[in-house]
Amino acid sequence: MKLRLSQEDADFREEMRTFFTTQVPQDIRDTVAARRELSKDQVVRAQQTLNAAGLAVPGWPVEWGGKDWTPLQRHIWHEEMQLACVPLPLAFNASMIGPVIAQFGSQEMKERFLPATANLDIWWSQGFSEPDAGSDLASLRTSAVRDGDHYVVNGQKTWTTLGQYGDWIFTLVRTDPEAKKQAGISMLLIDMTSPGLTVRPIELIDGGHEVNEVFFEDVRVPAENLVGEENKGWDYAKFLLGNERVGVAPVGSTKRILAQAKEHAGDRLEQDPLLAARVAELENELLALELTALRVVADSADGKPHPASSVLKLRGTELQQDVTELVVDIAGPLSLASGAADGSDVPDWARVATPQYLNYRKASIYGGSNEVQRQIIAKTILGL
Amino acid sequence: MDFTLSSEQKALRDAVRGLLTSAYDSTETRREVVKDDPGFSEKTWARLAELGALGLPFSEEDGGFGAGPVEVSVVAEEIGRTLAPEPFVESVVLGGSLVAALGTAEQRSDLIGRLAEGALVLAVAHEDLGKPVTATQDGDAWTLDGVKEPVLHGARADVLLVTAALPGGGTGVFVVEGDAATRTGYRTHDGLRAARVAFDGTAATPLGEASDAAAAIEDAVARAQVAYCHEALGAIDVALHQTVEYLKTRKQFGVPLSTFQALTFRAADMYVSAELVRSTVSWATLVLADDPDRAREAAARAKLQVSRAARHIGQEAIQLHGGIGMTAEYSVGHYTSRLTAIEHTLGAGSDQLRVLASSVGEHGVVEPIA
């Protein structure tokens, strides 16, 4: 057992910290620090800056731009980005479809998509959930029927995050309606400019437009866009969701927002013992989460995830929500000024507090709801 | 950064586990042992000494084995797993740390030497009811007056280490032969022992110099707090495991309890608490070993986390067992009782939170790694 980073890892941390705080454009980092919405252009520029330095997709195979890093180095990379207010590489590209294509795609598919995916020349959207297929994803009904060299796709996807920016969408579609539910599913890559495909925004409780519905009406998709084999889509989806768990506990950004909250509170930390106690308790819970993340990466060097990794999504999103809630409470009545424009005397952080709080109620729902995580812990870890 | 035990540390763990699981092979065996004074097994204490466990953290010069906080944590965790009532943390970690930090060469050699051999039970008389024991000097001689209570294992102790107010201000530590004080022992709710210890012009010897030892006391308390936290980890692991097994085997309405999601989700939350607290407590031990300037902060953080997890898991373990969890015959309630005692020994969660809250504005983010 030892506490300190090795010299090599400490040097690596310094290198990451320097890069993120000096090479990523300041306007982008300022937007993240202010908890304001990033534009498409900012997300693309950030990822392209990282990709030019070989830092966008370290988890991929080395031949496609990945890095031969240790799990601890990947953890440091991920944490330092968050602490430096650098937007993480777009998850749909870097953590979801990229690794699936690298693992299961044909050589042609890899060459066609992987470099453009790493560089965010293609913006991917995710087409998994449907109105009647949420936590029970395998009950999805969007169909793809083979017609010569094409599939004809009909149905509806929903909760498609940032689908308004999407160039391509990776979808789960039913190719064998006779098979039992997981067995008849395939993964299909679809150009979002295809005729018959429409994107409709869903307005959320924070007033923002983050997610969408995507409709498919006789959309013709070339058969070469099938990932891997027909009816094996469920396996690829499980692989994808397994990768999603890496970095699902947003420790660094939650720590940063909690530190900002203390600045906003100012003298009240000394005057209000209840507030100080609440902050101290949150800091301690976050420390426990961060140390658990470190235990997981330190012990998963042999490739198998540590059993405690399932704790990370559950507790990480709870604490993310607790901290957004704290900021609203610190803002107090100023939090009502969420619609104030320039010229308001209410500081920016207080104006965004409630929309952020409302927005992050999503965190315990997406990526496998926290109830699904409890089910996983009970069944696969405790054997219940 | 590494959270795994070395092969020597694993061997130590296996040896202590073997010893304690044979000494306390059932709830009934432990109940028999704690029924009569001194509330633990002198034989098991001697066997822990033969294994080298009682001299682990002390320098070889003083009669110890030169091991560190990680080895201490390994022993404490096994004590917690078996609810062994032997006074390891009280004598070796808290008492021994004070002697090692403050004692003269002669005192160190005598007290630590006997402690490591299993020939000495040390008790630290620190808690009082708001009125400190006072020390009075007359030439070279010192006497103590006042009452300490509760003193864990105070009635059995061969030697008491007593914290007392010095005539010129500050807190000193004094060595008192156990039978020189007036002691009234009793049983605590977790089966262990404590005592009221009264001093009335009682002869005492300063441990080292008769000068303010507040810093050394705080450091020794931090070490003991972290060791208690490891004891709690052992107890938490067993309480969780027993609860999970019970949910699998107990049938109601014709089916195992594990078919009810209302129960399995609560077990999942217990697992989450158990993993989180293990992370913080293991970290605190690494801080003791590697970054002693942060020892008190790390101990406070660990003890706060233990407080939260021990209450959560201890309470849920009983509730998910139902009525059987309330009985003295069945073990799980004893784990909850011990966890409750650990929480309130050397500062409860609320005390730690007060300390941490008072300095919360002095840093930005909390950085675990030096």
TrEMBL record, chain A:
It comes from the Bacteria. Residues 231-381 form the Acyl-CoA dehydrogenase/oxidase C-terminal domain. Residues 127-219 form the Acyl-CoA oxidase/dehydrogenase middle domain. SUPFAM superfamilies: Acyl-CoA dehydrogenase C-terminal domain-like, Acyl-CoA dehydrogenase NM domain-like. Its cofactor is FAD. It holds the Pfam family Acyl-CoA_dh_N. InterPro entries: Acyl-CoA_Oxase/DH_mid-dom, Acyl-CoA_Oxase/DH_mid-dom_sf, AcylCo_DH-like_C, AcylCo_DH/oxidase_C, AcylCoA_DH/ox_N, AcylCoA_DH/ox_N_sf, AcylCoA_DH/oxidase_NM_dom_sf, Mycobact_Acyl-CoA_DH. Keywords: FAD, Flavoprotein, Oxidoreductase. Belongs to the acyl-CoA dehydrogenase family. It comes from Aeromicrobium halocynthiae. This is Acyl-CoA dehydrogenase family protein. Residues 7-119 form the Acyl-CoA dehydrogenase/oxidase N-terminal domain.
TrEMBL record, chain B:
The keyword Transcription regulation does not apply. Residues 7-118 form the Acyl-CoA dehydrogenase/oxidase N-terminal domain. It holds the Pfam family Acyl-CoA_dh_N. Its cofactor is FAD. InterPro entries: Acyl-CoA_Oxase/DH_mid-dom_sf (IPR046373), AcylCo_DH-like_C (IPR036250), AcylCo_DH/oxidase_C (IPR009075), AcylCoA_DH/ox_N (IPR013786), AcylCoA_DH/ox_N_sf (IPR037069), AcylCoA_DH/oxidase_NM_dom_sf (IPR009100). Gene3D superfamilies: Acyl-CoA dehydrogenase/oxidase, N-terminal domain, Butyryl-CoA Dehydrogenase, subunit A, domain 2, Butyryl-CoA Dehydrogenase, subunit A, domain 3. Residues 223-357 form the Acyl-CoA dehydrogenase/oxidase C-terminal domain. Keywords: FAD, Flavoprotein, Oxidoreductase. Belongs to the acyl-CoA dehydrogenase family. PANTHER family: ACYL-COA DEHYDROGENASE, ACYL-COA DEHYDROGENASE FADE28. This is Acyl-CoA dehydrogenase family protein. It comes from Aeromicrobium halocynthiae.
